[in-house]
Specification:
Length: about 140
């Protein structure tokens, strides 16, 4: 079945995106829900993306715009049964397109260390030392857009 990625435009889609994040980060990875949900989730200048296979929501990502030139990808998640099907890549492509549309020159993200190969394949470069976020090792990554 074909996967599509859309920008979240209504409360139902947002609820679907948040449910995916809860399942992946809170239930699967044991991130405290108090850390998973933050002030950016309801900020007017944040773009939430939703990946759908048919009518089923299967992945999500969030894009913030912390500076004039930079976008920040956060909360990329795909449901376990749908991993390895290119959904993460589709979400990344759409996130980058959103950033470019807004005139951003760089995408930054904090990747879980186990996901570094995924981001390297998409031409992201990691730098600095690993750091802990919610008990999970991360590294900062960047890509010129």
């Amino acid at each position: 079945m074909k996967t599509t990625v859309q920008i979240v435009t209504n409360p139902f889609q947002k609820e679907q995106a948040m449910a995916i994040r809860f399942q992946v980060f809170v239930e699967e990875q044991q991130v405290p829900s108090s850390l998973e949900i933050d002030e950016w989730d309801n900020h007017s200048d944040v773009v939430h993306l939703l990946a759908l296979q048919g009518e089923e929501a299967v992945g999500t990502a969030r894009v913030r715009f912390p500076s004039v030139t930079t976008a920040k990808l956060e909360r990329l998640a795909t449901l376990p049964n749908y991993r390895g099907q290119g959904i993460g890549q589709l979400l990344m492509k759409q996130a980058e397109a959103v950033a470019i549309e807004r005139g951003k020159k760089e995408m930054v993200l904090n990747a879980q260390v186990q996901a570094l190969p995924f981001y390297h394949r998409l031409n992201y470069r990691d730098y600095g030392e690993p750091f802990d976020d919610a008990g999970i090792p991360h590294k900062t990554m960047t890509k010129s857009l």
